[in-house]
Write a structure and sequence with these properties.
The protein is mostly helical. The protein is built from three helices and no strands. The chain is rod-shaped and about 100 Å long.
Length: 109
């Protein structure tokens, strides 16, 4: 499960890197065509990078919160299961103790 999460995170990083490369290429083309100044292109690239970083951080935080929630749910289910098994074990122990009182020789065999 953790491997799957790592793959999702790496895919996100890869997508962000590709998007940054495509943005840089598009901005360079605009500069070459004279439709955008080099300064404006740098500013736009910085803005895109900052926004991409912010979006990545928000997505990471959201994923972390979801992962924590899933772990809590799994833990809660395990705790309930353990409690149920402990209750059943206590009932079996009580029945065994009652049988031992009634006939210790039969239980020992």
């Amino acid at each position: 499960m953790i491997d799957a999460i790592k793959k999702v995170m790496l895919a996100g990083v890869g997508a962000a890197a590709m998007s940054a490369e495509k943005a840089e290429k598009a901005l360079s083309e605009l500069v070459e065509k004279g439709k955008l100044s080099a300064t404006d292109a740098k500013d736009a690239a910085k803005k895109l990078a900052d926004e991409g970083k912010q979006e990545f951080e928000e997505a990471s935080k959201s994923l972390e919160e979801r992962f924590d929630s899933m772990l809590k749910k799994l833990g809660r289910g395990q705790a309930e299961r353990i409690e149920s098994l402990e209750t059943k074990l206590a009932a079996v122990e009580a029945r065994l103790a009652a049988l031992e009182k009634e006939s210790p020789a039969k239980v020992a065999d």
